[in-house]
Specification:
Layout lengths: L2 H15 L6 H17 L4 H15 L2 H4 L4 H17 L15 E6 L6 H15 L4 E5 L7 H12 L2 E2 L8 H14 L4 E5 L8 H14 L3 E7 L4 H13 L4 E5 L8 H10 L3 E5 L7 E3 L2 H8 L5 H11 L2 H12 L5 H13 L2 H6 L9 H6 L4 H12 L3 H5 L6 H11 L3 H35 L7 H8 L11 H13 L28
Parallel strand pairs: 1-4, 1-5, 2-3, 2-4, 5-6, 6-7
Antiparallel strand pairs: 7-8
């Protein structure tokens, strides 16, 4: 969603980084481009004016003028401004009642994703917070709306209120409240009706339901792709309902992201969740610091670790680790890795969480690194026999032609996959020498330092989306290891440099 803004801001900061000292004219020029970038991203004009005014005041301060790298300080100022605009350092979670059931009222226009978001939220509360959840559809107007929620409830394993034809929305709300109390549910999610546009009957019905249910949380679900219309919708709902937070859906779309940047500042309401896919588990807690890090091309390492942790099959991972330590890596193991990447959001989703990827997007596109390429690779491996997957060396021309026909690809793609597998296998063999010291060195450089939760705790301590500056020895060792990789990265990709000429220990994303 923020790709355009990230690219534009990245070019601004790249130009600043080549200058030793920034004068007032340089800062004004840079902030003018930041202003244009925010406006092009569809951020509300009053929000942009306040942002630029504060950023200019901070950028002209004495601390910046005397710093070693003023350009890095400007990046930090923009980062801090984005975090403040988006709601502050700490994410705002759901508030649940001390005496259950807690009632969560979902409001919004038709088509914004209320019903799907209700199911996603129910799954999250059930899986992560161990809450017993009941969902109820109060949408008596949209055809099959109640059936849709019941179907989603079955899909995520969450109970839904039985459908009684002919009941009004207010009667369903009363019945749902009674059922939640009698059956000992911790949370009741009420999915209200919406319209394609704002109208008085819808608002009056939602206000009446809010009076009956006395919700602990009233969340407005808004489509982030609608731009400033989403902001106007939020303001209109906020005037009639006691809104407590926002949920932005379709955050993985190709919109300009201005709604997300404007909503918090314009309405004063915290953004609590982002809908990031059509899948039932595609709901992320909104963290302003991590989103700001993504906008500035710093990636989101914590989100990457969380995805890996959620989808990790511990037993399979341990078995694979033992085999890798012996230098073993066959095509079955490669297939498992491809499947793991798809579960974590695919190549494109993972790339978006890595620092500096925006700067090599063109190289990634040219190298044809995409989710479709992963699917083709999986299809190629699936077309092989067990013996061929265990011993790829037996694959001669006739076997390759059969595999290519089975996977629906050219023989050249089969050869590329086999070459990539050989390079990976050779790398793991090299790292397994000397008792696996290569793996230990890599774990140290990636922040390992401990088994189990220790490494994860260290990553979480980074503060979200912020990568610690590696020391010179780590960078040198990493460069040497990269030079030894047979054939380099797929497609000849070069990862962006980590040093960037920063003073030792300087991190522009660290609060001073």
């Amino acid at each position: 969603m923020f790709d355009g803004l990230t690219e534009r801001l990245g070019s601004v900061f790249d130009r600043l980084s080549g200058r030793g000292v920034l004068g007032e004219k340089d800062i004004d020029e840079a902030l003018r481009e930041v202003r244009v970038a925010l406006l092009e991203a569809d951020v509300a004009l009053p929000v942009v004016k306040d942002f630029i005014s504060k950023a200019r005041e901070d950028a002209l301060g004495e601390a910046v003028i005397r710093s070693i790298r003023p350009a890095d300080q400007v990046v930090k100022i923009v980062y801090d401004g984005l975090v403040e605009m988006l709601g502050g350092e700490e994410p705002v979670g759901l508030k649940l009642a001390l005496n259950p059931p807690s009632v969560i009222l979902m409001a919004g226009l038709q088509g914004s994703g209320k019903t799907t978001t209700s199911a996603k939220l129910a799954l999250r509360l059930t899986r992560m917070d161990r809450q017993k959840v009941l969902m109820a559809s109060l949408d008596t107007r949209r055809p099959a709306a109640m059936e849709q929620l019941a179907l989603l409830g079955t899909q995520v394993g969450v109970d839904t209120l039985p459908i009684v034809p002919g009941q009004s929305a207010t009667d369903i709300a009363r019945r749902a409240m009674q059922a939640a109390r009698l059956s000992g549910y911790d949370v009741l999610i009420l999915d209200t009706a919406g319209r394609t546009t704002l109208d008085e009957p819808m608002m009056a019905e939602a206000a009446q339901i809010a009076q009956i249910a006395s919700p602990t949380e009233t969340l407005l679900v808004a489509d982030s792709l609608t731009g400033q219309d989403a902001v106007r919708t939020a303001q209109a709902f906020h005037e009639r309902l006691p809104l407590t937070g926002l949920v932005l859906t379709r955050a993985d779309g190709d919109g300009r992201g201005g709604a997300a940047l404007s909503m918090r500042a314009v309405t004063g309401l915290p953004i609590k969740f982002l809908g990031v896919s059509e899948k039932v588990d595609g709901l992320d807690v909104f963290d302003a610091a991590r989103v700001a890090g993504r906008i500035l091309g710093q990636g989101d390492i914590v989100a990457l670790v969380e995805k890996a942790t959620q989808d990790l099959d511990t037993a399979k991972a341990e078995a694979m680790a033992r085999r890798l330590a012996k230098g073993q890596f066959d095509l079955d193991m490669m297939s498992d890795q491809l499947a793991q990447m798809k579960r974590m959001g695919g190549m494109e989703g993972l790339m978006g969480l890595l620092p500096g990827v925006q700067k090599i997007k063109k190289q990634i596109a040219e190298a044809n690194v995409s989710d479709k390429s992963l699917d083709r690779q999986s299809a190629i491996i699936s077309s092989m026999t067990k013996a061929e997957r265990r011993k790829p060396d037996i694959l001669q021309a006739s076997r390759k032609r059969r595999i290519a026909a089975g996977a629906g690809v050219d023989v050249a793609e089969v050869n590329r996959l086999l070459k990539q597998h050989r390079q990976m296998a050779d790398t793991f063999k090299m790292m397994s020498r000397d008792g696996g010291k290569g793996f230990a060195r890599m774990a140290g450089m990636l922040g390992g330092g401990g088994a189990g939760a220790g490494g994860l705790d260290r990553l979480k301590a980074l503060g979200g989306g912020k990568v610690p500056t590696p020391d010179a020895a780590q960078l040198e060792a990493l460069a040497k290891m990269a030079d030894k990789l047979p054939g380099g990265l797929p497609g000849g990709l070069k990862l962006p440099g980590l040093g960037g000429g920063l003073p030792p220990g300087f991190n522009p994303f660290k609060k001073s």
